[in-house]
Write a sequence for this structure.
């Protein structure tokens, strides 16, 4: 019995504090008070079921739908919007015409946001439902000395269960017997290959989850062999149950956009109330009618709040979602689009995301040197490897399909690339005997007759049959007495053995999985298969080594470079061994040396504070558990980073939920991972995340442009009213005109700005710091200056109408002011498109904005020229001369901002 030194570790955690992997089979049975030959009695099983509860996952207590719905209305911005809707309706009612349109739109926006919020709260519940679906529906159990098939929910600690190929593992268990048992634990541990199990091994207490080869975890799948085990944990006490707890306990953080919009909402709400009070006090102290000043100040306060902003943001995010679907990224949560643009760290799984999830032969060697893949030797070596191989090769519609164990499929595909068809080879060199692969022996042997491939060899005697053995190099080399060089069989010497060992070492240092191939010439007269026995695996002829790895995706290297240039740290988190992870990490330039990689065992020895202080040193985290992934994500977040996390397995779900944005794999991803994620990658490709980051940055840019446009326009309205009242002039605008400008003229261009294409240099910029507000980098000053410009132009039009033109009158001044205020904002929307000149990016490249401009202009002209509408909005028709003045003043913002861009450049 193999055994490792037992050790205790202060950082070791187990939900019942018993590290069963460090106990012998007998100790485990004794601790669980069970019998390997008889199992539990029915009475004892019922007693334990009452103690431990059913073997199923729990859900959090659900809030009522009504409570979840009303909890969406506690946001400060939402409260302000409700107040705006009520005030808007009251103002219109007092003005003598009940306006239902404006408040209806506002309430529709609020309702839409509430519905979206309720839908998102169901995410954790869906994750747990998916976990439940992964549980085995039935289990084969030994009770009172007899085998039963029972619902897996009735299993209890101490039950003896049986495992067969294709079965789900129904609960965490300690192996008692195993025969070539392999378990696929990838969804739980991230290990990319089925794990060989050994019931006799006793391990150290601090052994990582992925290395506990004497345990089988719930939700694992038996891919090979069979076994017998005693249940050690059920339900929420299993490893997958611990993941369920983390999903329930971890709260998805607010996105940067949600935080910024909440802050903006508070600022705007307080500013609106302040403006309302100041304007009202200023007007009444000048002796103006109290009712008129109340109307004006309230209308201005409503105008100061861009109540369409949540709708505009939602529309922009939705448009971004549609664009990202075309780039293989499906967004499950709208704010996640913008969060991607703020990402500073991308934590990615290795297998299938950074790599191709397909073992591929990358190195071949003879006994003396590395060989090229197109040589006669390579054809001979891979022909042998393909014959001693249980994979199945199929070609349908000229497409190759290989099914089987990953190592064997890699050998068959490498042979196919050299023109060796396994199906045809199996027919010409028929297998007549075999010794199957055994995890203890670490090799397999097959015997074939009529081996035409022996034409490569120079043999003194005719060979009727050939036995082929493939397996671990360290095992196989001890079974060899000869080696093959250029088709000639020679005596194996210590020098050649040393050379083979060095070739094997070179491959393993490159993180390759290495398989050795040997053969033995046979004559039928030497005996029959029944009495060949162990003689088949002695005095073998060593042929060569085959090295293979799951290679990186070809496009990922460029994507990693783009990340680094964009100020984003790419990080690999994997369940694979550290040597494999380092090799891939260095090839992709995620790390430059092995000191930048750390294993899960090393993480166990670090406190959360130590991890937080050293987290930026590492780019690769290997052999990690679900708890480690959450710790890694939180350590980055505690340093102020915005973390995107990718994953496909159950083990990734807590980290996906904890991250600022979780990205699940669409092809290989489990339902648990998908339901816990904010985004699903339909091609399982790291490069898609980088493309999505670019899109997210573009969306944030566009949201910022819209806010810039809306607020500079609104400040223009405030300046117009405030300055006029300050200088004792009649109010240049009435309430209905303010509401028109705020609702119609502002909204269409703001939405169209959301359709602005992503700027070409966007991935050359650093990520937006989450500590920065929307008004950072001088945006607030720009908004004030541009608002003053729009306000000044509107006041200039007003003064021209009441004092300069020969037809001067209050109605003319208000009409010209109203028209300039509307049209100047429409012109100003073109300034928002880019920091670059309009002539650089193309004046007509955003057709939606052009359409909004033309439609807004047409509506504004209609309001002034159509007499019934003019009566409602208290304006008068303008002459051609007056329209010329209006358009000349309105277009000035474009000319002045273009001049400013030119100066800055």
């Amino acid at each position: 019995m193999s055994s490792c030194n037992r050790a205790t570790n202060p950082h070791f955690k187990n939900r019942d504090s018993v590290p069963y992997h460090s106990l012998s089979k007998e100790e485990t049975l004794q601790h669980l008070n069970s019998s390997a030959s008889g199992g539990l009695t029915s009475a004892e099983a019922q007693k334990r079921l009452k103690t431990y509860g059913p073997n199923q996952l729990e859900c959090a207590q659900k809030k009522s739908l009504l409570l979840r719905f009303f909890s969406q209305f506690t946001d400060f911005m939402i409260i302000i919007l409700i107040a705006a809707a009520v005030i808007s309706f009251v103002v219109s009612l007092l003005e003598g015409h009940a306006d239902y349109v404006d408040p209806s739109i506002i309430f529709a926006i609020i309702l839409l946001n509430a519905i979206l919020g309720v839908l998102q709260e169901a995410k954790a519940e869906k994750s747990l439902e998916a976990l439940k679906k992964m549980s085995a529906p039935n289990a084969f159990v030994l009770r009172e000395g007899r085998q039963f098939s029972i619902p897996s929910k009735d299993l209890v600690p101490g039950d003896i269960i049986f495992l067969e190929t294709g079965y789900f593992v129904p609960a965490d268990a300690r192996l008692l017997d195993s025969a070539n048992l392999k378990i696929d634990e990838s969804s739980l541990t991230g290990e990319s290959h089925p794990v060989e199990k050994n019931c006799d091994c006793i391990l150290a207490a601090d052994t990582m989850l992925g290395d506990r080869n004497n345990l089988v975890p719930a939700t694992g799948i038996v891919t090979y062999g069979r076994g017998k085990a005693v249940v050690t944990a059920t339900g929420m006490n299993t490893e997958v149950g611990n993941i369920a707890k983390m999903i329930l306990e971890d709260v998805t953080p607010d996105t940067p956009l949600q935080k910024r919009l909440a802050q903006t909402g508070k600022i705007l709400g307080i500013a609106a109330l302040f403006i309302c009070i100041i304007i009202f006090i200023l007007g009444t102290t000048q002796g103006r009618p109290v009712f008129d000043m109340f109307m004006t100040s309230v209308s201005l306060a409503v105008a100061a709040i861009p109540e369409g902003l949540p709708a505009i943001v939602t529309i922009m995010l939705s448009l971004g979602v549609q664009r990202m679907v075309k780039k293989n990224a499906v967004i499950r949560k709208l704010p996640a689009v913008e969060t991607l643009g703020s990402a500073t760290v991308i934590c990615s799984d290795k297998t299938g995301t950074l790599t191709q999830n397909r073992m591929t032969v990358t190195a071949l060697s003879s006994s003396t040197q590395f060989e090229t893949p197109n040589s006669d030797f390579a054809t001979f070596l891979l022909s042998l490897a393909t014959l001693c191989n249980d994979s199945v090769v199929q070609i349908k519609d000229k497409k190759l399909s290989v099914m089987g164990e990953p190592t064997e499929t890699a050998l068959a595909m490498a042979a196919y690339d050299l023109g060796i068809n396994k199906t045809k080879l199996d027919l010409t060199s028929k297998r007549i005997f075999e010794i199957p692969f055994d995890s203890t022996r670490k090799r397999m042997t097959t015997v074939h007759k009529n081996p035409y491939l022996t034409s490569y060899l120079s043999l003194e005697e005719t060979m009727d049959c050939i036995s082929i053995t493939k397996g671990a190099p360290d095992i196989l080399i001890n079974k060899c007495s000869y080696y093959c060089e250029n088709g000639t069989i020679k005596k194996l010497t210590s020098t050649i053995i040393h050379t083979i060992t060095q070739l094997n070492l070179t491959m393993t240092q490159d993180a390759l999985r290495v398989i050795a191939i040997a053969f033995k010439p046979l004559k039928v007269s030497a005996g029959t298969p029944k009495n060949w026995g162990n003689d088949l695996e002695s005095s073998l002829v060593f042929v060569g080594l085959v090295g293979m790895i799951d290679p990186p995706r070809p496009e990922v290297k460029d994507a990693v470079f783009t990340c680094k240039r964009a100020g984003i740290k790419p990080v690999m988190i994997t369940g694979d061994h550290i040597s494999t992870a380092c090799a891939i990490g260095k090839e992709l330039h995620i790390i430059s040396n092995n000191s930048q990689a750390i294993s899960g065992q090393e993480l166990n020895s670090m406190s959360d504070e130590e991890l937080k202080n050293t987290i930026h040193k590492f780019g690769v985290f290997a052999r990690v558990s679900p708890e480690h992934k959450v710790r890694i994500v939180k350590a980055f977040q505690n340093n102020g980073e915005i973390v995107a996390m990718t994953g496909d397995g159950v083990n990734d779900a807590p980290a996906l939920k904890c991250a600022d944005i979780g990205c699940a794999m669409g092809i290989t991803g489990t339902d648990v991972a998908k339901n816990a994620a904010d985004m699903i990658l339909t091609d399982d490709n790291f490069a898609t995340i980088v493309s999505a980051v670019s899109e997210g940055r573009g969306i944030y840019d566009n949201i910022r442009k819209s806010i810039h446009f809306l607020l500079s326009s609104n400040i223009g309205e405030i300046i117009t009213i405030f300055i006029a009242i300050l200088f004792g002039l009649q109010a240049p605008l009435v309430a209905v005109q303010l509401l028109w400008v705020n609702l119609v003229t502002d909204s269409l261009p703001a939405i169209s700005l959301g359709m602005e294409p992503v700027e070409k240099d966007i991935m050359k910029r650093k990520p937006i710091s989450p500590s920065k507000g929307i008004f950072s980098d001088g945006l607030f000053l720009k908004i004030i200056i541009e608002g003053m410009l729009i306000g000044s132009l509107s006041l200039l039009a007003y003064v021209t109408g009441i004092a300069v033109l020969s037809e001067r009158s209050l109605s003319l001044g208000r009409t010209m002011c109203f028209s300039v205020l509307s049209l100047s904002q429409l012109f100003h929307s073109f300034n928002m498109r880019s920091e670059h000149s309009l002539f650089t990016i193309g004046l007509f490249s955003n057709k939606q904005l052009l359409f909004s401009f033309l439609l807004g202009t047409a509506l504004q002209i209609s309001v002034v020229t159509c007499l019934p509408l003019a009566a409602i909005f208290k304006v008068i028709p303008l002459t051609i001369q007056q329209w010329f003045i209006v358009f000349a003043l309105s277009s000035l913002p474009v000319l002045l901002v273009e001049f400013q861009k030119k100066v800055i450049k």
Remarks:
- The chain has 34 helices and 26 strands.
- Confidence is low (pLDDT under 50) at residues 1-15, 120-125.
